[in-house]
Amino acid sequence: MKNFLLLPVLPLLFCAASCTTERPSEPVAAVQEATAEVVEQTAAVVGTWQGSIPCADCPGITYTLQLFPDHTYQETMVYQEREVEPVEQAGTWKVDASGTLRLQSPDSEGASAFKVMPDALVLLGGEGNTVEERYRLKRINKK
């Protein structure tokens, strides 16, 4: 009869033994800190950015990038002193842990990347290097 009474108590003992009150390890805290930084950078880039980037056969391209809070974007490129329609593209964006803004369009295979700076977005080349100082977008308004 005594063994019968121990049966319901055994699962409770196993559960109590498996519970631990250890503090989270340092890597968890580091991940939480990095995540908070990405969230902060993500909120900081929302808005409209614009700049004039070089063009091979015209004075320049007026490049406007609108980043929306729902992580979608709209980019518009207007070729200066040319009789062509503006080029527009839309897609999704994210800021990764390295502070790089990545644009992904369903219409293109590659993704554009910008380094997030305190006062600008700087276009990055294929290997993640800054292309040139002239490939810089400044904020024109905050959403």
What does this structure look like?
This protein is an alpha+beta fold. The protein has a domain at about 50-140: Lipocalin (Beta Barrel), CATH 2.40.128. About 25% of the residues lie in helices and about 35% in strands. The chain is built from two helices and eight strands; from the N terminus they run ααββββββββ. It has helices spanning about 1-20, 25-45, and strands spanning about 45-55, 60-65, 70-80, 85-95, 100-105, 110-115, 120-125, 135-140. An eight-stranded antiparallel beta barrel has the order 1-2-3-4-5-6-7-8. β3 (about 70-80) and β4 (about 85-95) form a beta hairpin. The longest helix is centred in the first third of the chain and has 20 residues, at about 25-45. The protein is globular and about 55 Å long. The N and C termini lie far apart (about 70 Å). It holds the Pfam family NlpE. This is Copper homeostasis protein.
How does CATH name the architecture of the domain at 48-141?
Answer: Beta Barrel
Write down the overall mean pLDDT: 79
Helix content range of the residues, please? 25-40%
What is the CATH topology descriptor of the domain at 48-141?
A: Lipocalin
Report strand %. 35-45%
Low-confidence stretches: none
Q: Would you list the SSEs in sequence order as H and E?
A: HHEEEEEEEE
Total number of β-strand segments? 8
Given the structure, what is the number of helices? 2
Which oligomeric state applies? Answer: single chain
Protein name: Copper homeostasis protein
Organism: Pontibacter actiniarum
InterPro entries: Cu-R_lipoprotein_NlpE
Pfam family, one: NlpE
